[in-house]
Design a protein that fits this description.
It is a single chain. The chain is mostly helical. It has one domain. Helix content is 78%, strand content 0%. The chain is built from 7 helices and no strands. Helix 5 crosses helix 7. The protein is globular and about 50 Å long.
Length: 148
């Protein structure tokens, strides 16, 4: 089982680095800096999904016409986890845009964003973080506990 302490610790680490980056203008000085942050965000979101899965039995839900073995394989987990990561990533991008347009007069997020290419890069690194969690979970955590 994934520990809530791991989830909270990772969130605190991400928020701490984000606050440091914002205060020190790292997002504007180092244009690549948001890539590892999105990677960590995708990793964290995948962790949340797998922590929620046993509570809501998300992955075991299956349509009537699909073979039972298919839904017990890793493909549905991959699709559902990465779909959740992308959903949260897209919602985050909408938040960034909405914050700048509707709330902030200083354009904190727009200054770091450079159009569609930046958004696609952000979503790519969100996905990469989710994939990294799945690989680590499959190789390491699966041996220690039953999260799959």
């Amino acid at each position: 089982m994934i520990s809530p302490k791991l989830i909270l610790g990772l969130l605190i680490f991400i928020l701490f680095v984000h606050i440091l980056a914002t205060i020190n203008y790292w997002y504007w000085t180092y244009t690549w800096f948001d890539m590892p942050m999105h990677f960590l965000g995708g990793f964290w979101v995948a962790t949340i999904f797998m922590w929620l899965n046993p509570k809501f039995n998300i992955i075991e839900i299956r349509p009537l016409n699909i073979d039972r073995n298919f839904w017990r394989s890793d493909l549905p987990k991959l699709i559902l986890v990465l779909g959740f990561v992308i959903l949260i990533g897209v919602l985050w991008e909408f938040f960034e845009f909405g914050y700048d347009v509707l709330i902030s007069s200083k354009g904190y997020f727009i200054a770091a964003q450079q159009g569609v290419g930046d958004t696609m890069s952000d979503l790519f690194f969100d996905l990469l973080g989710g994939i990294a969690f799945l690989v680590i979970g499959k190789l390491y955590l699966n041996k220690k506990s039953n999260i799959w």
